[in-house]
Amino acid sequence: MEPGTAPSRVLSLGLAFMALIWVSPFAWLFTNAFDPAATGRLAIPQSIGLENFASAVSGNAGQQFLNSLLIAAGTATLSVLVGIAAAYPLSRLRIPGRNAFLWTLVLLRMLPSIGVLVPIYFAAQRGGLLNQLGVIIALAILNLPFTLLLLKNFFDTIPIELEEAAYVDGASLWQIVTRIVIPMSRAGIAVVWFFSFTGAWNEFLLPLIFSRVEAAFPMSVGLYAAFGLQGAIDYGFLAAFSIVYAAPAVGVYFLLRRNMNTGFAGVGVKG
Question: Which of 105, 195, 220, 225 could form a disulfide with 145 if both were Cys (CB 3.0 to 4.6 A apart)?
Answer without folding.
Answer: 105
